[in-house]
Amino acid sequence: MKFRVVLAAATCLALPLAAHAQPVVGPYVNLMGGTSIQYPIREDASIGPVTGITGKILFRPSYVGLGGIGYGIGDGFRVELDGDYIHNTAVKADLDNIGSTKVSGRADKYGALANVLYDIPLGLPIYPYVGGGVGYEFVNAKYIIPAGPAESSGSKGSFAFDAILGVAYPIAAVPGLSIVAQGTFLDLTESYKYKLSVTGGFPPGSPTPGTLKLDDSSFLLTGGLRYALFPAPAPAPAPTPAPVAAPTQPPARTYLVFFDWDKYNLTARATQIIAEAASDSKSAATTTLDVSGYTDTSGTPVYNQGLSERRAKAVAAQLVADGVPESEIAIHAYGETHLLVPTGPGVREPQNRRVEIVLQ
């Protein structure tokens, strides 16, 4: 098995091992351009009865354009459909048992691949990502060997796969916009044959026509922009500080109720704390109980907003069960904002999974 196939398979298998978070949720588009580095193409030619004319065609770095549409499905995963146009310029042929000869011409590829990608949160301003996929590529090529003189041309299609390693840098001033840089290994799974025409005899005395069989793989180094069409909403504003109590008034009292990861059901300790808050609210002549729900930074911002609201409602319901009038309870949900313990994205921090009860 080719080493590049093993490398691509290992990259794809490593996707589930990455951490759980991503900067992209929902639909997005991207556009990139850059350099195409075509690996030397191994050839196997025949001219009439002469077979086994082997060697390789060499290319100089050329250019590539990529465009795609995708969707962030949550928990770090994205699916993406990419289209490409790749231009490669041939410069030389190294023929076994014959030697090197100048070659002019090009090999243009265009096609589409469906990819699965995974964003890796590291608590940094950048988001690395890995991925891979499959698709179909067309090759339109023409090679001219002046020493022959010989000419080969044609258009062929082949199934293809790619392996991707990239990094994205979100632009804070433009929500949803990121600068991206990406390396892509692209391999066509099928060898393809072109018609070969020798006009002057190459090698001398050989009849025409013949065939030229080629393999094809390349490395693409690209950069550009990605734009999320519906970026996550900005964090909710910080809660309004409680007014300063008059000297004759007791200060506000706060109670913290903590939750298990991705849960909003009450533990035995949580129920005990809520009962204490309910009892104190009656003896302290409390007029309002602010019940505010929060989450840690694991999961997506939209999901965390809903989870914080469910936690706040669960605590409020228990307060009512403990005798607090529902009209005295004000419920707030702040999602993954206002962290009690500052962390980066994608971190499961127990002290951030909480509901705060403030007696006013």
Question: In words, what does this structure look like?
Answer:
The chain has 2 domains: 226 residues, Porin (Beta Barrel), CATH 2.40.160; 107 residues, 60s Ribosomal Protein L30, Chain: A. Helix content is 13%, strand content 51%. The strands form 2 sheets. Strands 1, 2, 3, 4, 5, 6, 7, 8, 9, 10, 11 and 12 form a 12-stranded antiparallel beta sheet that branches. A 4-stranded mixed beta sheet has the order 13-16-14-15. About 5% of the residues have low confidence.
Question: What number of domains?
Answer: 2
Note the beta-strand portion.
over 45%
Structural class: mainly beta
Radius of gyration: 32 Å
Distance between the termini: 71 Å
Number of helices: 3
CATH classification class of the largest domain: Mainly Beta
- The counted number of beta strands is 16
Low-confidence runs:
5-22
| Secondary structure: helix percent | 10-25%
Let me know the average pLDDT.
Answer: 81
Relevant terms:
360 residues; mainly beta; Porin; 60s Ribosomal Protein L30, Chain: A; 2 domains; twelve-stranded antiparallel sheet; four-stranded mixed sheet; 3 helices; 16 strands
Task: Map the helices and strands.
Elements: H1 3-13, E1 26-38, E2 41-47, E3 50-74, E4 77-95, E5 99-102, E6 104-119, E7 127-145, E8 150-170, E9 177-188, E10 192-198, E11 210-214, E12 217-228, E13 253-258, H2 268-283, E14 289-293, H3 301-321, E15 329-333, E16 354-359
Parallel strand pairs: 14-15
Antiparallel strand pairs: 1-3, 1-12, 2-3, 2-11, 3-4, 4-5, 4-6, 6-7, 7-8, 8-9, 8-10, 9-12, 10-11, 13-16, 14-16
